[in-house]
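Homework help board

Subject: predicted structure for assignment chain

Our instructor gave us this sequence and asked us to write out the predicted structure in token form, then describe one feature. I got the tokens but I'm not sure how to describe them. Can anyone check?
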Amino acid sequence: MSLALSMTHLETFARLHEGRPGDAHSLWALSERLPGGLGGEHPIWQTLLQAEDAHVLVATECQLLVGAIVTWHHKGADVARLAWLGVDASARHRGIGRLLLETSIARAEIAGASEVVAHVPAGAVDLQALLGQSGFVSVKGGELRLQLGAMS
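My token output:
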């Protein structure tokens, strides 16, 4: 991907913003409607929204929260970790997950990451496909890796 995002046609009007404390309730409701999101866990949103190296990006449509992604990355570190990605069932297959993922990856790359790693639960077929389409390669035990700068 490099820093230039691919020109993908997305069928969404989603707007993205950095997660803020006021989003915690909506983020909790989103994660409760999902089967654990990335990693099979339900995040502790209030803590993530305040953690220095946790980057929460939120997608909204018509001011309703429809998706979010959490990436752990210390500025300048080589590796960023994709910790959670979830899109509400009613908003899937319109490009929201891809928009969140591409934006999060670009931000990690700008901040100095050369690789992004993720652990995907065995049953998360749609998530596995999204990450694969975005250039992630399966390494072992559900771990996927993306070398930044290797994307086109």
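Reply (TA_rk): Your tokens look well-formed. For the description, you could write something like this. The chain has four helices and seven strands. That's the kind of observation they're looking for.
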